[in-house]
Amino acid sequence: MEPYATILTALKEKTEKTLKHTHDQLGQIRTGRASPALVDTIRVEYYGTPTPLNQVAHISVPEARQLMIKPFDGSPQVMKDIERAIQKSDLGLNPQSDGKVLRLIMPPLSGEQRQKLVAKVKDLVEQNHVALRNERRDANKVADQMKKDGTLSEDQCKKAHDAIDKELKSVEHRLDEMLKHKSKEIMEE
């Protein structure tokens, strides 16, 4: 095992967290289809406590452009609290209630809205590319410090830098694939 393996292990953990964070952020961006991930960040005042929506209601997708939210607790107050939380969110959707379930109908996106969403996705992915570059810089600093301390030889330090670059290229490729997939999803009718 190489002496710089701990640097790579730490880098892999950080990059996986960055990828997961990006995936979660992208899931919350609206596409032409309904997805339960759209409402993941919504918090409902549930008996005075801000609670994630998915902990107070079952969320399903009965049709491609519709989300159905059925509270576990069928009280009218909980329905009103969920409705209020959805209206306060930045989704721009108005829930329709029949007393037992709430329905969120996703209106079709215009071409201009789709372009704006794709631009938002690109910005978000670029921010995460910057985070990855910062993680690479930090890992390279650790390798350089280990060389200075005598823990790594010159060759081992070079190998560490190469391994760090290789890992980062792999992760950046996965990030670019996420971007491509999400952009395609947004542009579909």
CATH 4th-level superfamily of the largest domain? Ribosome-recycling factor
N-to-C span: 51 Å
Number of helices: 4
Strand content: 5-15%
**Total number of strands:** 6
The average pLDDT is 86
Describe the structure.
With 189 residues, the chain is an alpha+beta fold. It folds into two domains: 5-28 and 110-187, Topoisomerase I, Chain A, domain 4 (Orthogonal Bundle); 36-105, Gyrase A, domain 2, CATH 3.30.1360. The protein is built from four helices and six strands; from the N terminus they run αββββαββαα. It has helices spanning 5-27, 76-88, 111-149, 154-187, and strands spanning 43-46, 49-52, 57-63, 66-71, 96-97, 102-105. The strands form two sheets. It has a four-stranded antiparallel sheet. A hairpin with a 2-residue loop joins β3 and β4 (66-71). α1 runs parallel beside α4 (154-187) and α3 runs antiparallel to α4 (154-187). It is elongated, with a radius of gyration of 22 Å.
